[in-house]
Amino acid sequence: MNMISERASHPLAMNNESLQALALWLKSNGTRQIREPDPRRMITERYPAGLLSEAELQALWDVMEG
CA angle 49-51-54, nearest 5°? Predict the structure, then answer.
């Protein structure tokens, strides 16, 4: 009997199709550089439109910039 063929595969082992899918995903997503977060954009996305006036948004931006 061939002992190699009877061994249980490792639970994290991947088949060829899974490896190819991972390689494609990494090719399209894995090399993206992490951008510096934009506090002004985070504020406008976090709070409802119209909640902060442009002047208030600029004041918050100035505080966050230091």
Answer: 85
Compute the distance between CA of residue 62 and CA of residue 39 in angstroms, rounded to an integer: 10
Distance CA 27, CA 18 (A): 14
Residues of the chain with pLDDT under 50: 1
pTM assigned to the model: 0.36
Q: Are 57 and 44 a contacting pair, CB within 8 Å?
A: yes
Retrieve residue 7's tokens: 């061994």
End-to-end CA distance of the chain: give it in Å, rounded: 72
